[in-house]
Amino acid sequence: MRKILIVGAGTAGLHLAHGLARFDYDVTVINGSSSGEIRASRPSITQFTLPSALAYEEAAGLAMWEHVAPRITGTNLHLHPPGAEPVTVSAPFDAYGVSVDRREKMADWLEAFEDRGGKVVIHGVTVTDLDYFSRMFDLVILATGHGELGQLFDQGVSESGQPPRRAVAQAILDGVPHTEHAQWHPVAAPAGSHPGYKPEPVVSDYAEVVSTPQVRAILSPVLIDAGPQHVLQLMGPVGGEMDAWPDRPDPEELLRLMKRLVREHAPVLADRVAEASPLNDQDVSVHQYNPHVRTPVATLPSGGLVLGMADAVVSTDDPVAAQAANVSTASANHYLSRILAHGNAPFDRAWMTETFIGHWAGTPDEELPFAGMGQAAAGLSQVLDQIWSPQAPDHLTQVLGAATRHQAVADRFIGDLDDPRRYAEWLYDPTAAHTYLAGLRR
Questions:
Q1: Which residues make Cβ contacts (< 8 Å) with residue 415, sequence separation at least 6?
Q2: Structure confidence at residue 169 (pLDDT)
Q3: What CATH number corresponds to the domain at position 237?
């Protein structure tokens, strides 16, 4: 039985750990925080699990919140072109997605991994520790990009396709009214629950996205430990209005500033958040998103090798394109497929490099259906950042204009968020975009 160590209990690392355990690999997850400490930690940037990623979680037995998580069934995209009236592009998803507070999600997945027979070690890890572990395990995978461990991977594999550094303010809010798209659905009690337990109906609703030259805003349903709420995220380039906070603002002051920015830049959301408030001070936070694509294989002092995945080598927290869960899920499934196909062969540098490059820029096929997701997600962030730039390509402006007039374009523009690789077929290339738009007029 091959022994594999995964360092880091994030979305990608735990998804991979569960997958390997299903195929009887001897898997150990080591993490610096226990599940209880994860639940009590400060919030990170909220992620959105879009329909296809949610389906993969369900197939892996990792979709644990069906009876309580609000469903995200589509998006209202409000565009504010400079010097023109705002327009709205609205479309449903083919299936629903969800957003679950990462603290609850990762804690539940970590506990479930242990309940299913996986080995969990709660301990900090140093480079010296990794050096030792590399002699004990057939494969060591680093799935966290923080601290000295993340610095093992040299910067600079790719400078193209990376979104800019971004300031993010986030508030998890109680008391936000739903949109006109909201519906309530009866759900069955989860397996193993008390015979008399009857779940409350689950709400489904659209996420609201506002795009202006200065600020991007997202308002969407989210599940936290206290139940269904909403998350408000405001994003902007470092050095801009979104990065002009007072030094160490308290949560009340931060929320007041966020609401002011909403009134100025996303007025369509102003009434919905005007009376909303967080349940506790931790639910209001400021973050900075720093993109990176790193060398995927690190060499330890003894010569042992470590394969990076997820945040260790590709930053995934950019909320603008809502691709964090997509990239993490694709990374885990791609690595899983590669490991299973490798049999008992050694996990050498060439195999490690090919595994990462396939996830980043590979062409998907029947054996590796998740290939190429990394670069596709980064490319989408880059395109969305170009929307209001004076240098924005003409065909992108034409597509957005067509989306306000043709529901088919709106459906495709929003629906392809579920798999950003599909945008390459019609959006990124001017000729392909013009051919697609010309077909609408025939």
A1: 91, 93, 94
A2: 94
A3: 3.30.9.40
Residue position matching structure tokens 């010097």: 83
Residue 101 has which token pair? 């507070």
Q: What pLDDT was estimated at residue 122?
A: 98
Whether 217 and 230 share a structural domain: yes
Say whether both 113 and 86 belong to one domain: no
3-state SS class at 116: coil
In a domain, 49, yes or no: no
Contact of 9 with 110, CB cutoff 8 Å: yes
Q: If we measure between CA atoms, which residue out of 418, 325, 388 comes closest to residue 75?
A: 418
Predicted confidence at residue 155, as pLDDT, reads 57
Domain count, the chain: 3
Distance CA 389, CA 225 (A): 39
Is the separation of the CB atoms in 165 and 31 below 8 Å?
no
Amino acid in position 323:
Q
pTM of the model: 0.94
Q: Strand 166-173 and strand 183-185: pairing? A: unpaired
List pLDDT tens digits, range 46-88.
Answer: 999 999 999 999 999 999 998 899 999 999 999 998 888 899 9
CA distances from 328 to 93, 150, 295, 334, 343 (A): 20, 16, 17, 10, 23
pLDDT at 53: 96
Q: Which of 44, 40, 100 lies closest to 289 in space, CA to CA?
A: 44
Range of the domain at 216: 66-99+164-287
Specify the pLDDT at position 212: 94
In angstroms, the Cα distances linking 329 to 206, 295, 323, 423 are: 23, 20, 10, 19
Same domain, yes or no: 157 and 169: no
Tell me: do 174 and 89 sit in the same domain. Answer: yes
- Residue ranges, the chain, pLDDT below 50: 157-161
Q: What is the per-residue pLDDT for 175?
A: 97
Give yes or no: residues 241 and 276 share one domain.
yes
